[in-house]
């Protein structure tokens, strides 16, 4: 029996370690790629609206316009593949609606509190649609809390809301009028995917079973999803290389694999290394051309390496390796040709393939999708649903406590809470610490400058615009840096409407600390830990990997009925499940709770086993037979055995039961006795079952003493 004092000590140690890690993460300042022209354009949008309304209207209207332009600019910096003007307008319209409804109810405290709670709940649920939606919705609550404190009538409320929308309209207009590197994000995503393939080819030269992170390919596919308007304007250089890069990955792995590809040593292995080096050079050149919007330039020695050797020469590859080498050469030539098209040409229409699979819905058509996501997450067991409840409780309590304290500016506590809270523990705690530290630094610096110089409204407005520009420029270096810029920005904006330093610093710091503390306490009291759900994520990954294997084996069993789209969709599902597992495992690593049946060591072993299983299926996919190939009854028998064993295995992973792969193993043994035991599906099937056996060993219950060990 475990001593209660020891249990308490272990709990305190895990919390102390988790808090130390989150504090370190929150205060980390990273080197990031800066975009000074984009930051200047965003700051110019704020400067235009603030300057105009400060000159022709009142300071209060200037502050409203500043927040509209500021928040719309922040939305355009988020990682989204939608057009930047659309993001700016969507954020501004949402801010205008929330501000107007807040103005209508601010004179009735109970009604305003009910509206605030409803708005906070919806902001928390917006994370179900996506991180950009969650961030913009959180901003709506924060801006509403600030702007409704400015005195106005109902007509004035409508005026303030319209001015906030106008600020977003100005930001959108500047993006349209002064485009900076059009299609730059899509170019970077595609170039990153090609560069990742190039790095993979280089690593395969020295490690034939090197792992590959599919995230760059997933990002490139997301970037390739276009609205109908974008599809008509996309440069031709961005149209073809992504699909070819997807097809290159299994070919590279198949060529390098010592079982299904080139021999482990000798002239054949040297030839494979030469081809892999040439492939890396070609892919890097194409990535550079796509990123810069220029033609592809290749060195002549690379072109010479890609020449097909004579069949009788010693360096010629044979069998499956030879087929992989020839296919690699063809695909590399296609990649160069696709990326070397005129970069200024546009596409006159949308292909049927894009219409069915890569067409992004417009914003109005996204509403039903968002409603389905909200309905799916509106349950007590959902992390998003629990996050929405946390946000609602914290914002409501923070607003009440802020109003009860004798500091004024009651909105700062709930503003801080809603801006730092995220659906997972690590981000909430790290952002809470970063927000407080950044606020202290920003308020002290800006307040000190106000004390020393006593600036007027126009100078305060100029300093606020400068802080906005610095925030846009340094946003990706760390949340603490962005928080410092935002804190200074708010101090100078309050100076525009006549709020003095003595009215700002004490209340801002105390209420920011209060809001952060409430956010952190809420997650400790009402958590949604990822650690207990790790087995479910692992089971989902096993299920999608198995379905991917079944889709590939179905092509071997019945080549005449092959459906490439089915294999492709199964691969995408497997990638999504792997990504969900990696994100969940990353979040669980920072949580102050002990593992429940899945230790850190078992996590690593199970992850490696399933990654190897996916690689084995990918090797089979690299050698799919043509439609005119003869059917393989043995492949069908192996697929039937795997299909029958898969549901029980998935259930066993979820419920901590032993895995049984004896039936697929017996079917594979029968295939090994077939006339062609060296066939690609036979040897890849061996790799697949070996990986699944490693998964079973990784999830085997540990000895009783070891199971009590703390999570590292």
From TrEMBL:
Q: Give the superkingdom in one word.
A: Bacteria
Give the record's membrane topology: Multi-pass membrane protein
For this protein, the record's Pfam families field holds: FUSC-like, FUSC_2
Q: Which InterPro entries match?
A: Memb_transporter_dom, YccS_N
Query: What does the UniProt keyword field contain?
Result: Cell membrane, Membrane, Transmembrane, Transmembrane helix
Q: Which residue ranges does the record assign to the Integral membrane protein YccS N-terminal domain? A: 88-201
Chain segments annotated as transmembrane: 42-74, 86-104, 110-129, 161-180, 388-412, 432-451, 458-475, 481-497, 509-529
Localization, per the record, is: Cell membrane
**Gene Ontology CC annotation, any one:** plasma membrane
* Integral membrane bound transporter domain boundaries: 400-521
Family note: Belongs to the YccS/YhfK family.
PANTHER family per UniProt = INNER MEMBRANE PROTEIN YCCS, P-HYDROXYBENZOIC ACID EFFLUX PUMP SUBUNIT-RELATED
Q: What is this protein called?
A: Membrane protein YccC
């Amino acid at each position: 029996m475990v001593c209660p004092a020891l249990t308490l000590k272990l709990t305190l140690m895990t919390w102390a370690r988790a808090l130390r890690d989150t504090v370190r993460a929150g205060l980390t300042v990273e080197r990031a790629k800066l975009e000074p022209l984009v930051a200047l354009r965003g700051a110019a949008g704020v400067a235009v609206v603030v300057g105009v309304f400060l000159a022709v209207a009142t300071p209060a209207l200037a502050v409203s316009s500043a927040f509209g332009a500021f928040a719309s600019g922040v939305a355009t910096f988020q990682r989204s593949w939608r057009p930047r003007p659309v993001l700016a307008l969507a954020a501004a319209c949402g801010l205008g609606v929330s501000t107007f409804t807040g103005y209508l109810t601010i004179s009735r405290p109970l009604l305003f509190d009910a509206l605030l709670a409803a708005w906070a709940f919806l902001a928390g649920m917006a994370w179900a649609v996506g991180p950009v939606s969650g961030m913009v919705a959180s901003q709506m609550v924060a801006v509403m809390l600030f702007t409704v404190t400015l005195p106005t009538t109902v007509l004035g409320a409508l005026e303030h809301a319209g001015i906030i929308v106008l600020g977003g309209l100005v930001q959108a207009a500047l993006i349209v009028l002064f485009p900076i590197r059009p299609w730059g994000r899509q170019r970077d995503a595609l170039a990153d995917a090609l560069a990742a393939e190039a790095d993979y080819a280089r690593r395969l030269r020295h490690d034939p079973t090197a792992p590959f992170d599919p995230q760059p390919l997933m990002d490139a596919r997301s970037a390739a999803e276009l609205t109908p308007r974008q599809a008509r304007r996309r440069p031709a250089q961005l149209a073809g290389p992504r699909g070819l890069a997807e097809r290159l990955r299994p070919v590279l792995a198949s060529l390098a694999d010592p079982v299904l590809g080139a021999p482990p040593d000798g002239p054949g292995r040297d030839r494979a290394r030469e081809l892999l080096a040439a492939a890396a050079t070609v892919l890097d050149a194409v990535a550079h051309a796509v990123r810069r919007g220029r033609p592809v330039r290749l060195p002549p020695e690379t072109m010479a390496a890609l020449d097909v050797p004579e069949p009788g020469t010693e360096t010629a590859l044979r069998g499956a390796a030879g087929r992989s080498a020839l296919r690699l050469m063809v695909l590399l030539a296609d990649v160069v040709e696709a990326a070397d098209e005129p970069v200024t040409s546009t596409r006159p229409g949308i292909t049927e393939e894009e219409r069915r699979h890569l067409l992004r819905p417009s914003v109005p058509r996204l509403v039903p999708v968002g409603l389905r996501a909200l309905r799916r997450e509106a349950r007590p067991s959902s992390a998003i649903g629990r996050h929405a409840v946390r946000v609602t409780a914290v914002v409501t309590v923070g607003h009440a406590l802020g109003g009860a304290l004798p500091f004024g500016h009651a909105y700062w506590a709930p503003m801080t809470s809603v801006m730092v809270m995220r659906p997972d523990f690590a981000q909430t705690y790290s952002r809470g610490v970063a927000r407080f530290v950044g606020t202290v630094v920003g308020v002290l610096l800006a307040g000190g400058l106000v004390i020393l110089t006593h600036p007027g409204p126009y100078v305060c407005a100029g300093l606020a615009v400068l802080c906005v520009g610095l925030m846009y420029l340094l946003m990706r270096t760390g949340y603490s840096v962005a928080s410092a810029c935002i804190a200074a920005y708010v101090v100078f904006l309050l100076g525009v409407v006549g709020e003095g330093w003595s009215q700002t610093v004490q209340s801002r710091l105390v209420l920011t600390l209060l809001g952060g503390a409430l956010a952190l306490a809420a997650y400790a009291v009402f958590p949604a830990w990822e650690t207990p759900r790790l087995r479910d994520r692992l089971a989902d990954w096993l299920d999608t990997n198995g379905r991917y294997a079944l889709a590939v084996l179905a092509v071997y069993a019945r080549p005449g009925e092959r459906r490439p789209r089915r294999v492709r969709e199964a691969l995408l599902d497997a990638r999504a499940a792997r990504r969900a597992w990696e994100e969940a495992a990353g979040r669980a690593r920072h949580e102050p709770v002990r593992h429940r049946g899945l230790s850190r060591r078992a996590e690593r072993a199970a992850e490696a086993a399933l990654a190897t299983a996916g690689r084995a299926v990918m090797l089979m996919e690299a050698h799919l037979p043509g439609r005119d190939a003869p059917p393989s009854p043995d492949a069908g028998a192996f697929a039937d055995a795997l299909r029958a064993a898969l549901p029980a295995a998935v259930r066993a992973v979820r419920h901590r039961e032993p895995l049984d792969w004896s039936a697929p193993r017996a079917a594979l043994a029968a295939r090994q006795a077939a006339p062609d035991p060296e066939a690609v599906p036979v040897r890849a099937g061996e790799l697949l079952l070996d990986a699944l056996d490693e998964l079973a060993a990784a999830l085997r219950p540990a000895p009783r003493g070891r199971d009590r060990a703390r999570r590292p």
